[in-house]
# Entry
Amino acid sequence: MDRRAELAEQVLDYVLEHGLIGLSLRPLAAALHTSDRMLLYHFGSKERLVGEALALAQRRLAASVAPPGPDVRTVGQLVRHLWAELQSPPGIQATRLYLDLSVLATKEPARWSGAVERLRGPWRGPLRDGLVLFGVPAAEAPALADLILGTLDGLSLDRLVAEDSARADAALTAFADLLDARPLPAGDHGGDHRENPART
Amino acid sequence: MDRRAELAEQVLDYVLEHGLIGLSLRPLAAALHTSDRMLLYHFGSKERLVGEALALAQRRLAASVAPPGPDVRTVGQLVRHLWAELQSPPGIQATRLYLDLSVLATKEPARWSGAVERLRGPWRGPLRDGLVLFGVPAAEAPALADLILGTLDGLSLDRLVAEDSARADAALTAFADLLDARPLPAGDHGGDHRENPART
DNA sequence: TCCTCTCTGTAGCACCTGCTACATGCATGA
DNA sequence: TCATGCATGTAGCAGGTGCTACAGAGAGGA
# Structure
């Protein structure tokens, strides 16, 4: 019972470190000072073991989402803030896990795409809400949130893989500038938008 | 000799269809009406087989890059054009291959990151040049090109995996609008920029 | 005709995979 | 004291992996 939850934590740590795709029970068990026999005893199967580790990952990620500080005033600054968080070690690990899950989902969508969506959930909702707070019209917020998530994904991937990591940083800066230079909507949707498009 | 090049083509087709990550010689050989024995005879090892298939993929990709038609006049339209190409079957296959390679590169950078970079090359260079033609100052073009590539990657990934494929489309439209609403640079870098920010 | 060289089929190697049968130690409750 | 149930180690299963040893088939040149 409790041992199982404890093992799930360690399994997740191992997965964040070594990736989900090549995961094999025996090396995993060795790193956790157990045997594959014991892992299967506690979890029943590899599939359930992975499932519990992923559920735990989602809970950890949801708990780590924090609203930005008061110095974040524009959408561009928000994006820079998210980028900085994504480049921290836990952010990189989460990105790698997300990437592994995406690849698995392209191979077996029925089995994995739910997990991808679930891991993304803790970011998408708060981001939409946050954008509205920054004066983005509610009608545009979902698409803009998805754009930001997608761009952060793509650039994180680039930075993860490419030899020249400064390239992704420069691209993100261009993105943030682009967002802050965005013209204010003509309509009167927004409430107290504290947008401040001071560029450069 | 010739048989080997012919096999490389078929191997690449198979890899584009089934992914690079779980690639196994026996199912591959069966699909090609040969045996693993023969594949190893012609290529020497699995590693070299994959290497030749990837080199071929790069050549194919480079050959498929074509300048956009005359109806593409703004950066936003260019991005929409690239997006449409990426959603075609070969574009999706290339994206999946790029994704698999990225995952492999996070696990063994020394072995794979070169291949990722090489596969990306045929797009990055022409995109930079294309941006300059559209009036983007030469100093900003590289970062903007990387931003566009990264965003296309991230949104393609989203669309590949997510149940709701319209989400990525909406996000890309927001991106294109954002690019076309971009303020013209104050400096006088650009040559004949035919920018025409007619939005909506 | 014989020899050699290129190609290919069969069988197998050592190793890895998830998973399981069996036996055992150990603590707890009747 | 005995029995029950939980936890764990050992050994092994069937199937997969890349790769190889060996034997042949067939074509071409001497």
